[in-house]
Amino acid sequence: MFHDLWADAPVSGVTLTGGEPLLRRDLPGVATTLSRIGFTVAVATNGTLLTSSTARELRDSGVRHFDIGIESAIAEVSEGIAGACATGASVTLSLCLTSKNAGTAPEVVRLAAALGADAVCLNRFVPTGGPSDAHHMPSSTGIADALRDAGKMGEKLSLPVYAGIPLELCVFASIGETGIINTACHCGEGKWAIGPDGVLRTCEQSPVLLGNLLNERFSTLRELPAVKWFREAMPFRECHGCADLPRCGGGCRFLPGSESS
Question: All domains of the chain, ordered by start, with CATH?
Answer without folding.
Answer: 2-188 (3.20.20.70)
